[in-house]
Design brief:
The chain is mainly alpha-helical. The protein contains two helices and two strands. β1 (22-24) and β2 form a beta hairpin. The protein is elongated.
């Protein structure tokens, strides 16, 4: 029963009006999806932290 509810919700998400807001996480190693809301780019704070740390590392190594 629970699996049927999950499948029905997934079908509603993929075919409903929210489907236009469905996007992949902006973190390259991540394979998750999220619903865009405002400026949100990542599926979790962990992915956002990873991306920000990578940018900071690239800036530090480029100037050294």
């Amino acid at each position: 029963h629970a699996l049927a509810v999950i499948a029905a919700d997934a079908a509603d998400l993929l075919t409903g009006p929210a489907a236009a807001r469905l996007t992949a996480c902006a973190s390259p190693p991540c394979n998750r999806f999220l619903l865009k809301h405002g400026r949100r780019q990542w599926c979790s704070t962990r992915c956002g932290d990873r991306a920000r740390a990578a940018r900071a590392y690239a800036r530090r190594t480029a100037t050294d």
